[in-house]
Design a protein that fits this description.
Layout (H helix, E strand, L loop, with lengths): L1 E5 L4 H12 L3 E5 L11 H8 L4 E4 L6 H6 L1 H21 L5 E7 L22 H18 L4 E6 L1 E3 L9 H11 L3 E4 L4 E2 L1 E3 H16 L7 E3 L5 E2 H12 L5 E4 L14 H7 L7 H15 L19
Parallel strand pairs: 1-2, 1-3, 3-4, 4-5, 5-10, 6-9, 7-12
Antiparallel strand pairs: 8-11
Length: about 300
Amino acid sequence: MRLLITGSLGLVGASMLDRLRQAGIDVVEFDIRKDGHDIRDRKAVRRAIAGCDGVVHLAAISRVAWGETDPALCDDINITGTAVILDAAAMEPKRPWVLFASSREIYGDPAAFPVREDAAMAPLNTYGRSKAEGEKLVLAAAADGLRTAIVRLSNVYGTANDHPDRAVPSLLGRAVRGEKLRISGENHFFDFVHVDDCVRGLMMVIERLQGGIETPPLHLATGIRTTLGELARAAIATAQSASELKVLPSRSFDVAGFQGDPARAAEVLGWHAEIGLDEGLRRLRDIMVARGRPLDPVEMPREAAETTAG
């Protein structure tokens, strides 16, 4: 099997790459940080997808704050880029399947919890709207005969290969260094999923796609809600730190909460999260301590000033 992985240097992409190669799968890497590969470049995508059996499409402007900073760029990469991937797959003689990584941001502020996959889409921000539009493109391609699957990711964390201003790495990193922790919206709550659990679920979807088995949209979520305040205090406890916590007001484009319903993933895939937040924080703490330095900054396009969950 030969697969194209877009966003192959990202948090999920890099872990996915390792897992696929361990399984003996031939992988084509595609990432803006690797040789300038851009999913909006039709010729580059056509070259990369040639001979592939499937595409795991992870590449995106993946930060809510970045989408608000440059909405046009967010739409261009997340919507136009997804259309380029789907068009290339449709034109390829092997017609490879496409696994699209969507987001819990498509729901905005849901009416009820835990959130099921059939809940209404009502995104609050540019990033969420771009992912909802990406899903529409994927469904349209499926209606035209392309094999596809949609997986809606929650708050994935767990390695040093992450945006340093995202909730888990920022709070834990600051706690490890004894710095003041900052959060926007203390009572905002989210569903934090370790990257190893996320990749394991994606591998299960890949197996179904490769076998020609139809898969409905799925959450990879724990079904457990954790507030940013609780996360901050857990980070301080995990780091055994005396760090102080500063609470900042939430922003207009921040979702107030998400708790996913994992029932469909359990029924369809036999998947459930295995790594609890406490264990995941301990693992990440050990990685940070071993590195002896904070996470490297990721420059695309601009980081938010305070810790956020999206």
